[in-house]
Amino acid sequence: MTSAELIKRAPKALLHDHLDGGLRPETVVELAAEYGYDGLPTTDVTELGQWFNKGAKRNDLVLYLETFAHTGAVMQHRDAIERVAYECAQDLAADGVVYAEIRFAPELHLEAGLTLDEVVETVTAGFRRGSEGTDLTIYGILSAMRQAARSFEIAELAIRHRDKGVVGFDIAGPEAGFPPTRHLDAFQLVNRENFHATIHAGEAFGLPSIWEAVQFCGAERLGHGVRLIDDITVDDDGEATLGQLATYIRDRRIPLEVCPTSNVNTGVAPTIAEHPIGLLRRLRFRVTLNTDNRLMSDTSMTNEMVECCEAFGWGLDDLQWLTVNAVKSAFAPFPERIKIIDGIVKPRYAMLKAEQQLGV
Ligand SMILES: O=c1[nH]cnc2c1ncn2[C@@H]1O[C@H](CO)[C@@H](O)[C@H]1O
Ligand SMILES: [Zn+2]
After folding, report:
1. Is the ipTM of this complex over 0.90?
2. Does 20 count as an annotated binding residue?
3. Which of 13, 40, 86, 221 is 20 to 30 Å from 251 at the Cα level?
4. pLDDT tens for residues 78-104?
5. Number of domains observed in the structure of the chain
């Protein structure tokens, strides 16, 4: 059994985490006071943390997304946004994360007069300050809200900030009713510019969303993607048969940014033990493990790893496999990925495995 203490020290890579879903509860309270936001349900830090988590655990993505109104409300000013980004980097580094891509939607941070470019500059500055002197490499991904109509502009914004801390483009928000092809022009721009895109698909909606994301929009990775199991049948002997889409995604090694706790919150799976990640890992899809929203889902990379080890009997080998998968699938340039895998991930897992064998 791999202990939580050992897992905490293991190197981790995180490809799917929302900046406005990862604030410290105390920061939400402090920023609300500082900027005069009086809409919080409580200003007691413990109660507020619990309130966000209760709001998340309602078995529905649209309900899950409701409480982001409060974190968005306190992230409208430069100093507030910089602080949130700084703390995000610090919290991830303290959790053993060595590589992270954190996404945010610039269009949600304009209420006090910041421009889209200023929002991006502020977040990336916070990431730089927060990761300084740590082992963490951290980048931004820009999400456009799929129910809105600014995706082309956000794709242009992301491309403008490539090589300045932004490595990709995404669409987020309610999935049902807002298919990826609604934003086809944005994805075509990203592809034309040789830039990177991931798409939230196969979370609250099924195969058509995944199919459009990959085959029409050219997504390199899938945010969640777990509804792929609708294209997989498993017989009584555990023998799996894959449909054409699942086959394609496994053959092409398309990375899945799987977020187990968030999916249990939104009702995709009743428990972690019943979550598709177990099957997807067994079938050797390119699975990565992620937090999605550390505040709302009350989680961390360490917690996701501990939960999966408990549910599926995974150990350090599995955690290393997930971590290497994630760094391989990163949007950072190839030489950087190699450096992180060979220079940090592999040697540290080797050390931890030796420690575990010795029982120290
Ligand atoms: O799991 C998710 N699925 C879809 N959208 C999400 C998820 N988590 C957060 N957001 C949405 O992304 C925005 C930018 O970060 C958040 O404000 C939230 O509305
Ligand atoms: Zn997400």
Report:
1. yes
2. yes
3. 13
4. 999 999 999 999 999 999 999 999 999
5. 1
Comparing C-alpha atoms, which of 127, 126, 147 is closest to residue 136?
Answer: 127
Report the alpha-carbon distance of residue 221 to residue 286 in Å, rounded: 10
CATH code at position 287: 3.20.20.140
- Separation between Cα atoms, residue 331 and residue 289, nearest integer Å: 16
Tokens in use for 55? 């709001």
Rounded CA separation 285/266 (Å)? 23
Q: Which residue is catalytic, options 82, 175, 203, 304?
A: 203
User: Do 2 and 315 meet the contact criterion of CB atoms below 8 Å apart?
Assistant: yes
Smallest-distance ligand from the CA of 144: 1
Looking from the CA of residue 68, the nearest atom of ligand 1 is: 17
Q: Is the CB of 204 under 6 A from ligand 1?
A: no
> pTM for the full model?
0.98
274 is catalytic: no
Residue 173 Ramachandran class (φ > 0 left, ψ -120 to 50 alpha, else beta): left
Beta-carbon neighbours within 5 Å of ion ligand 2: 292
333 alpha carbon – ligand 2 mean position (Å): 23
Closest CA to 63 of 331, 319, 265, 306: 265
Tokens standing for residue 98: 């060595």
Counting ligand 1 atoms within 8 A of each CB, the residue from 143, 178, 203 with the most, and so the one to mutate, is 143
Domain extent, residue 21, equals 4-358
pLDDT band, residue 59 (cuts 50/70/90): very high
The owner of tokens 């799996």 is 240
Residue nearest to atom 1 of ligand 1 (CA): 292
What pLDDT was estimated at residue 359?
A: 83
